[in-house]
Amino acid sequence: MSSDASTEQANGLSNNADANVRTVALGSLYEKHKTIYIRSVKGWWTTWRWVLVWGTQILFYGLPWVEWNGRQAVLFHLVERKFYLFGLIFWPQDIFYLAVLLIISAYGLFLFTAIGGRLFCGYACPQTVYTEIFVWIEKRVEGDHSARAKLDQTPLDGRKFRLKLTKHALWWLLSLWTGFTLVGYFTPMRELLTEAATFGFGGWEVFWILFYGGFTYLMAGFMREQVCKYMCPYARFQSAMFDPDTLIMTYDAERGEPRGVRRKNADNSGLGDCVDCSICVQACPTGIDIRKGLQYECIGCGACIDACDAVMDKLKLPRGLVCYTSENALAGKYDSSSVLSHIVRPRIIVYACILALIVTAAGWSLATRVPLRADVLRDRSILSRPVEGNKIENLYILKVMNISETPRRFAISVSGMEGLELATENMVDANAAENREITVKVRVPADSAPTGAHQIFFDVVAADNPEVAVHEKTTFMMP
Question: Which of 26, 350, 403, 465 makes a 20 to 30 Å CA pair with 11?
Fold first, then answer.
């Protein structure tokens, strides 16, 4: 063989090797999805997880049907631009409270995570809650985890088709009802139910029912743990809120290793308490192995603890091989009181103080909020005009918003210039949660002030309660 041919062959082998390396590298970046057949377990953590599932869903599905003072108790009425929250009524001008609510939610999540890890993800996150419900339906229709795995491996026949059709039909019914309920928070539920009976939905209502219902079906039925592992940003920045004293689901490697199967009539003295049964992995909704330490995929649901405790009970070994504790507590073998004492630390105090301050300020603001809004707008078409009696008149559009739950009568007065008076009715009636708009004429003697803009004030006072009052400023134009 010539040297040129040898060189070409060597180059070809080198290129093939490089291609193989690139293929392996790319394969390691994109892990092939494996279907997780979650094994059902029973225990303290599973019981509490279902308590939260029931609690959150009773709240979500039930609130739109609760009435308060003859209306829906919780309603974000976009058409009327009013948000009802039991006895509170919020208008677009109250957007400040939405910002405060988001800040409180953020700090509350920071505080809760710094103390207890990702318990929100494992117990109250909608993705976890609906996945739990969908898996329950799947289990009732197709069987336990091994039966579901076996069914997916069998070819399609009449039985498999019937089971799959039943499962997906139930998933779709639940998803559509979830979307319907969500829209019921923005369109009064009674009206929405009437529209459903006659198929008279509006376009945006149809869109959001199908959109939210479709995403519920997709996320909880198919994507499941992929949302937690690849889509949710919370899993990515949780490490910024964790420290060695944060409570987490963890495995006691010192006690469990070396792991191995315990055999009868054999010397098992060299083995740890972990029998390598992998039931903790089978019970994990994200498919991780808790024995590998803290991982961002762990949602803190505690299923691995219930699975391991059941095995320890059968082996007559102490519980707690997989437990809910902190890294420092596990390393230092703290008792329960010592673990709790380490919860109070500087970052927790800072989070708690900031959260308490914001909640207190928001509560005080709501408690002292005047149930009245008033806006004064100048009529731009007529800046000023002379009228009978040698007077100058300005026109204003006065918007009176009664944000209380009772009808009220309001008295209107003006001040700020000598001889200033109203030339229209000084009383206005407003029903509960009504926005009244009226035209107001204000006059002054022509010789009472020089040419130009002069500051004046409108006072709107409730006839039945002088403390319900608004003092608004505007300008009066003299020609």
Answer: 26
Q: What is each CA distance from 457 to 136, 165, 303, 413, in whole angstroms? A: 64, 69, 65, 8
Handedness of CA 375, 381, 383, 386 (dihedral sign): negative
Global pTM value = 0.81
To which residue do tokens 């009539």 refer?
265
- Options 2.60.40.10, 1.20.1560.10, 1.10.10.10, 3.40.50.10150; CATH of 372-478: 2.60.40.10
Task: Tell me how many degrees the CA angle 161-167-168 measures, rounded to the nearest 5.
Answer: 90
CA 376 to chain centre: 37
Tokens for 226, please give them.
């992929």
pLDDT digits over 320-362, tens only? 999 999 998 888 888 777 888 888 888 899 999 999 999 999 9
Per residue in 147-160, pLDDT (tens digit) is 999 999 999 999 99
Residue ranges covered by each domain of the chain: 44-96+119-238, 241-361, 372-478
CA nearest neighbour of 405 among 94, 99, 67? 67
Of 85, 104, 81, nearest to 373 by C-alpha is 81
Provide the residue type at 370 as one letter.
Answer: V
